[in-house]
Amino acid sequence: MLTKGDDYPIHQTPDPIAFSQSDRNFYDRYFFNGYALDGEIFFGAALGVYPNLNIMDAAFAVRIGQRQYNIRASRHLNMERMDTKVGPIRVEVVEPLHKLRIVIEDNEHGIAADILFEGRSPPVEEPRSVRRSGPRVIMDLTRMTQLGRYSGWIRAGGHEVAFDGSQVMGVRDRSWGIRQIGLRDPQPMVPAQDHQFHWIWVPAQLDDRGFLFYINEDRDGTAWNSGMVIAHDDGRVEHLPEARIDVTYQAGTRWPVHGTINLADGTRINIAPQARFFMTGIGYMDPEWVHGMNKGPLAVGYDEIDTTAVGYVPPYIYTQAFAAVTMTLPDGTVQHGHGAFEGLSMGPHARLGFTGMHDGK
């Protein structure tokens, strides 16, 4: 089957672009977040393509003050990956690797937006991440991440806010490969495997540089996927794979309330998460809007979250948070900035003292 993508010189196999590799869990996704420097606004967006399920879905959510407004949409892909529009939500590539646009068209739910992302630094390609559960590959993906600034406007919950690149910063990423999507496999692995996942992701921007830190750890606390990249405004890029983070959690939860990254040269970075953004708003862990779920030819849903009333229970365990960042260099120079602190921890983690699926400190 020929599609619009076949007119571009981007083929990787003799097949038309409509066909990807054979794993049902193959996906291709856009992700965005942005935050006002006073922390009053935090938004996230995602658009995912699942070629072997023939599904495309998208979501946009914004927290204004203490309330989060969420719109999600899903449609049948019809094997056409170039039409990156799902209901009222669409993503446009304005200038590859530099500018992308998110549009939420007017709809009955009163949430709309027109936002332009512009990269501050070039995208950074993270090392390919592979994870197995017994003999089965459960994660095999590549991700690129880019720090940048946003301009545009958002309307939600009776509020309308406009902003430019001096007021709203953030990050966007693209990832593709294999990870669990849609319905769970009806025949689980034998013997039964503990479901364990521990993840921290911190992109941030300072006066003359930005950085990305990420880490996955096993149940004993050993890192199996980690790295840190510092992108300087003068074009230098530093890769610091030995970087590690110490995290303090809110009592009785696994919500981070503080983190410290220590580098080998003596640099110390303190991260102070503040107002939370719940990732369920853009489909992560949401039982009704799981990524890749078949919702029919087209479905659109909307809800709101009172962020002060949500307890540490699924699906609200997965969060990002607006964060104040302070970097102290070896010579004592201090830089201040802002970023996002993302954390998801499930299952045992011996070093941190977690023994169950969702128990806290």
Any idea what the shape is? globular
Number of helix segments? Answer: 0
CATH third-tier fold name: AttH-like fold
Mean pLDDT: 94
Binned, the helix content reads under 10%
**CA-CA gap between termini:** 53 Å
CATH superfamily: AttH-like domain
Given helix and strand content, the structural type is: mainly beta
Helix and strand layout, with pairings?
Layout: E1 26-36, E2 41-50, E3 55-64, E4 67-76, E5 85-86, E6 89-95, E7 99-104, E8 112-119, E9 124-125, E10 129-133, E11 136-156, E12 159-179, E13 197-205, E14 209-217, E15 223-232, E16 237-239, E17 244-249, E18 256-262, E19 268-278, E20 298-306, E21 319-328, E22 334-346
Antiparallel strand pairs: 1-2, 1-12, 2-3, 3-4, 4-20, 5-6, 6-7, 7-8, 8-11, 9-11, 10-11, 11-12, 13-14, 13-22, 14-15, 15-16, 17-18, 18-19, 19-21, 21-22
